[in-house]
UniProtKB/TrEMBL annotation:
UniProt similarity note: Belongs to the sulfotransferase 1 family.
InterPro entries: P-loop_NTPase, Sulfotransferase_dom
Domain Sulfotransferase per the UniProt entry, residue ranges: 48-281
Keywords for this protein: Transferase
Signal peptide: none
Domain of life: Eukaryota
GO MF term (any one): sulfotransferase activity
Protein name per its UniProtKB record: Sulfotransferase 1c2a-like
Statement: the UniProt record of this protein carries the keyword Transferase: yes
Source organism: Plakobranchus ocellatus
Amino acid sequence: MGRYKRMHNHLVVDDSGKTMKVVKLDGKIYPAFGEEKIRGISSLAIRKDDVLLCGYIKTGCHWMFEILHMLLNGNPQLSKHGKELGGFIDALPELILDALPSPRILNSHLLYGELPREIQKMKTKIILTVRNPKDTVVSFYNHIITLKATYGYDGHFNDFFKLFMDGEVENGDYFDHVLDWQRAMKNQSDNDILMVSFEELKANPLKCVHTLAAFLDVPIDQTFAREIVDACSFSKLKHIRRNDGPFAKLFRKGIVGDWKNWLSAEQNAAIEKRWAEKMQNCIYQPEM
């Protein structure tokens, strides 16, 4: 499989003048995969046995993808290509997506209302990943800096932090993104949505694997569950994916609380203030 192409139509500029390649459509910022690709996602054909993996960028989708792959295939073996080339609908051409064997795990960082329309008719099950915004912004920054050839950005963390808080990054405002998905969970009945937090997956992976299996109606015993947990430990994933070209760099630390090494007291307070203002009624409440 070839790598997907990135095409931007807009440059986000930080306070120091550093630029980042994105696509801007209808006032919202998306990854630089091209306008045509992003506009075409809503009409993507969906199969009856597809599973959707959604969530804001850097909230654990790569990790979750491998767990789901093992559950759905009944084998504790990693996927051949990972999520970037194994079902990332935000970027992959439809020709590649059509060639993927069933059951497909289709990954997206979009909002519920931006997903393929057929998911409602097919009653597609959705797994939603969430993560503490403090760790998310740190992981997001390192993701972009590591993939400089892709994003064209080499700015400082302090400048990126402001872009993140202003929603001037791909897929927009983190807080609005989480709230939009919460509304989808509460207000629609066509799709079952299971929310799994990065922190929960890290603290109790065995319990999460059993929860995911029950949600997907996949039979599982304790032995298979433990095999999945062992095969999907972050250290093993990082080691095995080390030769995956640019995608090898997507596995950095995989820990909870790395934000303490990055955020200033003022930045920490800014996130906590925003959370208090907007997220008090959110069903996801990470330890701040």
